[in-house]
Structure formats: C-alpha cells, structure tokens
User: Fold Virginiamycin B lyase from Candidatus Nitrosocosmicus franklandianus.
Amino acid sequence: MKILIISGLLVFVCLFFIKPIESLAIPSDQNIVVTKSWNLPMPNNQNDRTAITSSFSGNEIYFIESNSNTIGRLVPETNTITEWTIPTPNGYPTSVMYHPSGNVYFIESNSNTIGRLVPETNTITEWTIQSNTSSLDSIALGFTGSDEIYFADSNSNTIGRLAPTTNLVTQWDVPTPNSHPTSIKFDRTTGNVYFIESNSNTIGRLAPFSSEFTEWKLQEKPVALEVDSAGNVHYINENGTKIVRMD
Assistant:
C-alpha cells in the first residue's frame, strides 16, 4: 500500500472557470439532446478511455483521463475543473466510483492497482493486487457505511475484495475456468456480488459471506450488467438489441 499527499504542482485547477457549451432544448418528440457541455483541459489524445461518476448530491462529477494518468473533478455550478495526477507513472486509470464518504476509488489497469483519492486532502492511496496474471477490470462498492471494494480480476479468473482499513485482499476463484469476469456489481439488498463471465456467456453471483458461487448460462452474450435498488439484475445483450431482467 502506498499513501501519497499530492503537492500543489500535481493538482491542476482551472481557476479561469471553463465556460460551458450550451444549450439545446429537448424537442417535442422527447429525444434527449445536449443542453450543456464542458471541454476537458487535456488534449483529445490524452483523454482516451474516459469514465465518469457522480457525487450522490450531483454537485460534483469525477472522471478519468487514462492517457494523461489523471483523475478529474467538474463542479458544474462554478464551471471549475480540478485534476489530480496519479502517483504511479502510466497507471492508466479505466474505472472510477464515488464513495459515500466523499472519497473516489479507481482502477489503474497497467499496474494492477486500486487507488483512492481523498479530494479534501489531495491524498491518493494505492493498493497493488499481487498476482502474476492480474488484469483488473471493474470495481463495485460494498454496503453504505463500509469501505469494502469488490473487483473483477479478468486474467486470473477471480472476484476480489479489498478492505482498505486493514489492507486485506480476499480473492475467490470463479468456478468456470477462463471465464474472464467483468462488469461487477454489488447487490445492497443481499450483500451478494454479480458479474459477467464474458468468455462463457454466463452471469455469476458470489455470496461473499459463504464463498458460494451460482452461475446462469445464457443463450446470448451479456455485455453490461446492473443491479437495481430492489435487487433485480438486468443485462444488455451483445448486439444491444434488448435489456433483460433476470427473475
């Protein structure tokens, strides 16, 4: 585990207040169009693989810029963008999630690392997942009030859990060999973890407290997964032609 307090030189704040591009009305046919947008500070070739997450109040939008190795924050009300440089060179962040504590968690794909940004103190902490074949794919937050982070480790065919307060990492082997787990989601109604096994057209479920897996073989390839507040599991098929709910 590495903890670093980022100096002022590494935190780039756009104090000139980026002027948003606005606005277009929503037409009568209810098609959604852009009403406001903000240009990112980095050039386009440094913004590859950008992902976003929002604070629960919606007042802050966090995003990643993979090629420039940064985590950014947009405050729409003030049109201000702040960026933090990740300490590990060429970490290549690819996934980001906002935690109820106000912290921001992200994956560094090139270094098999989970990072945590504490915006109030400009502190970034990193945990490297020790595996010769690790390829972290996605992360999911545990119960509200808990700091546990679940992750899918595609190349090692495992589902993992990081407990930041104890630095403890637990990993479970997915029963289907070479299943390439991805798109992990946490079910807050049960404490179970759902994920896609992209190489086997399967949706899997891990019950962390019992270490039991359940797998559902599908007739099509799922590519995106979500669990709603009632515990219902939905997925999108590969062709993007339908959304399916599992009952």
Q: What stands out?
A: The domain at 1-128 is CATH 2.130.10.10 (Methylamine Dehydrogenase; Chain H). DSSP finds no helices and 23 strands in the chain.
